[in-house]
Amino acid sequence: MELVVNGEYKQVGDGLTVEQLLQQLGVEPERVVVEVNLTILKRAQHPQTILKDGDQVELVQFVGGG
């Protein structure tokens, strides 16, 4: 299936959860906020949120600095 992740099209396997997508992308769940189709997810929702073809996913990473 195809997702749009931060504006880029990505091919992924069917039935992928948000948690699995983050693992595939090498993203630490503690360091991002995930939005799927304009809805912000709580971290506890990542394992049970199954992505569907055409979903738009935005990953906002926290950046430290000063």
Account of the 3D structure:
The structure is a single chain. The chain has 66 residues and is mainly beta. Helices cover 12% and strands 33% of the residues. It contains 1 helix and 5 strands; from the N terminus they run ββαβββ. It has one helix spanning 18-25, and strands at 2-5, 8-11, 32-36, 39-41, 56-61. A 5-stranded mixed sheet has the order 2-1-5-3-4, with no helix packed on it. Strand 3 and strand 4 (39-41) form a beta hairpin.
What is the topological layout?
Layout: E1 2-5, E2 8-11, H1 18-25, E3 32-36, E4 39-41, E5 56-61
Parallel strand pairs: 1-5
Antiparallel strand pairs: 1-2, 3-4, 3-5
Short description:
By secondary structure, the protein is mainly β. 12% of the residues lie in helices and 33% in strands.
The separation of the N and C termini measures 40 Å
Could you give the order of strands across the largest sheet?
2-1-5-3-4
Q: How are helices and strands ordered from N to C? A: EEHEEE
- CA gyration radius, whole angstroms: 11 Å
Mean pLDDT: 94
Taking the sheet with the most strands, its summary is: 5 strands, mixed
* Class by SSE composition: mainly beta
What is the subunit organization of this protein? single chain
Q: Estimate the strand proportion.
A: 25-35%
The helix content is 10-25%
- So how many helices? 1
